[in-house]
Design brief:
By secondary structure, the chain is mainly alpha-helical. It has 19 helices and two strands. The chain has helices at 2-8, 21-27, 39-45, 73-80, 82-87, 91-100, 105-109, 116-125, 147-152, 155-169, 174-195, 211-232, 252-260, 262-282, 286-319, 325-343, 348-370, 381-390, 393-414; strands at 33-34, 55-56.
Length: 428
């Protein structure tokens, strides 16, 4: 009876021709289909322990999971997304493509990265050196400075020198006219020099309106110390003993040196850009690239400050003014670091630091003048104490020096990334 029961029990037909073609296709497990790839790639996929040799998962959400290899899991991921890596012009494009294929931050953690963007940055840095591309990378040609922007960077210093000479040769009502015309000409040439060549921002860089704060800092370098000294001595109404006070003096030497320093700023930026891209081609990882670019960044920064000091010494001697090395170098460092970040599309930090520096200088002046109101003498105590100890230039030195130090730390972390020096489509 038991045998009859076994025979009567319904089962799956297994005789030839018992199922039609569509039913047989439906019965094949959808998790496994024939793998048309070479055996080497199939064996690589079999290492994760979820598939047998010669099979792979059908297309679906799990297809975007990266392959694991014991030696180099990122290499397997780059092999799977080879087309995405080869056409990408920026690590952010690779990150967007990985996210579109289902790679999340949790998936990136299996590749020892904190998020998708960090993983994409390593993949981008290793594209030319991974050895899986059929053609070896072609070394980037040496970029030589163009005569156009090289001459354009000399115009601000030339026009500023002409303006200073004109102010020394004119008197009376003509001097304000010469000063206004010279200031306008210098501002226009500075704008032109910053719009072309190495100091120009990359395409697509958002505008932040930092020009206003830059002009304020330069104006303070010209007028700030003299105005602060006059305000602390009794203001424009006169000295405490009743004698008349002469108008505050102008510090033309720092501004003249800053305008001439536009040329070494462009040359050092050009040197940093070309050498960094060359190291980007030769490096084999983000850590190697950062370790090689950081000394280059600090070296070019020091080279610019040395060139500025060499310009400030003769200008101060020619104008018979004290060489304000501390004030001028801190201001120049702040402006150069802000420009370096801006041309590499990092615009938020420069805008915040420049605005904060200008606000600190304005606050120092405002407190001194507000102290002249009845009962407000205490407002000028901090600035009075600083100037009595180190002179009026301490305000500019502290404000610009603090801002430059913050930007230097930020720059050493930001401009040592591979994505900061990747050429855009226009530069390619």
């Amino acid at each position: 009876m038991s045998e009859l029961g076994e025979l009567d029990r319904p089962g799956t037909p297994d005789s030839p021709g018992a199922w039609d073609v569509r039913s047989e296709e439906w019965l094949v497990p959808q998790a496994y289909v024939a793998d048309p790839r070479p055996a080497a790639d199939r064996d690589c996929d079999a290492n994760d322990g979820t598939r047998g040799p010669g099979t792979t998962r059908a297309p679906g959400p799990a297809a975007a999971a990266p392959r694991r290899t014991a030696a180099d899991p990122v290499k397997a991921l780059m092999h799977r997304h080879r087309d995405l890596c080869e056409r990408a012009v920026d690590p952010l494009e690779i990150a967007a493509g990985l996210e579109a294929h289902g790679v999340t931050d949790r998936t990136a953690a299996r590749f020892r990265h904190r998020d998708v963007f960090s993983l994409a940055e390593e993949m981008y840095a290793r594209i030319p050196r991974d050895g899986e591309t059929p053609n070896p990378p072609v070394p980037e040609p040496v970029s030589h400075p163009r005569v156009g922007w090289a001459l354009l960077t000399l115009l601000p210093g030339t026009l500023c020198t002409a303006t200073v000479i004109g102010l020394h040769l004119t008197h009376g009502q003509t001097r304000p006219t010469v000063a206004a015309a010279g200031a306008l000409a210098v501002a226009l040439t500075l704008r032109a020099a910053l719009g072309r060549g190495p100091l120009s921002p990359r395409p697509g860089t958002p505008t932040t309106g930092t020009s206003t704060w830059t002009y304020w800092l330069i104006a303070y370098a010209l007028l700030g110390d003299g105005l602060l000294r006059t305000a602390l001595a009794g203001g424009p109404d006169g000295l405490p003993d009743g004698t008349a006070h002469a108008p505050w003096s102008l510090a033309a030497a720092p501004v003249l040196a800053l305008t001439w320093s536009c040329a070494p700023a462009a040359w050092t930026t050009h040197l940093l850009t070309t050498r960094a891209r060359r190291k980007l081609t030769a490096s084999r990882g983000l850590e190697d690239f950062a370790a090689s670019v950081r000394p280059l960044l600090l070296g070019t920064f020091a080279l610019f400050l040395g060139a500025l000091t060499a310009l400030l010494t003769p200008t101060a001697a020619a104008l018979d003014e004290p060489a304000a090395y501390a004030q001028t170098t801190t201001l120049a460092a702040l402006l150069l670091l802000s420009r370096l970040l801006t041309i590499h599309r990092f615009t938020h930090a420069p805008a915040v630091i420049l605005m904060a520096t200008a606000a600190a200088q304005a606050t120092a002046l405002a407190t001194v003048f507000a102290a002249r109101l009845p009962g407000c003498d205490v407002l000028a105590v901090p600035v009075q104490t600083l100037t009595d100890t180190w002179g009026p230039g301490i305000v500019q030195t502290l404000t610009c020096g603090t801002g430059a130090l913050i930007l230097l730390i930020h720059t050493s972390r930001t401009l040592t990334r591979a994505s900061a020096h990747a050429p855009t489509e226009k530069q390619r």
